[in-house]
Fold SMI1/KNR4 family protein.
Amino acid sequence: MVIPLYDEIYDRRVSWRKALARLGSLVPPPAHEPVRPDWAGIETRLGLQLPRDYRALVETYGAGKFDDYLVVYTPGGPRDTIDLERQLVSGAERLAYHQDHDEQLPHRPENLLEIAGTDNGESIYWARTPRSGPDDWTIVVNAARDWEDWPAFNGSLVEFLVAVFALEYQCSAFPEDFPSTSLPLSFVSYA
């Protein structure tokens, strides 16, 4: 059964739980249950609350790679390059550098939080506004080595992954051969 991403009658987003279930039908999670992060400690160190869909995604999949291409950064990731806390810091430093060199960003650097990346160098960010709660954050993607291409997705991280993997949203920053067209897609755990 395919669970629609959007409620067709009211044209509003469905809950993150339904989106996560749909993601599971497109990309089966690993057989083993990932270690549950200490969310309270992580959020205290970061000084911000994380979206519920992201926390559920990490608790379902853990650290790993989707479709041999895309990695969502996770707390305590087994490699520095996929550790959420380290990537939030390095992503902020990159954004500040590019802003200082007059690159156009879609949002102020402090409102962009790097949450995922690809083998080709695309960066996926949460876009937040000063008054938005974490469950209202949307997604913007920076094309690899192109600070002018910032496609936006008006939905959560899990909704973005579902739309990309279900071929319902073609992100101009991604190569044409991503994602694969044969389902189910793969998730390779780093645990």
The chain has one domain: 11-171. The chain is about 30% helix and 15% strand. The CA atoms of residues 112 and 165 lie 23 Å apart.
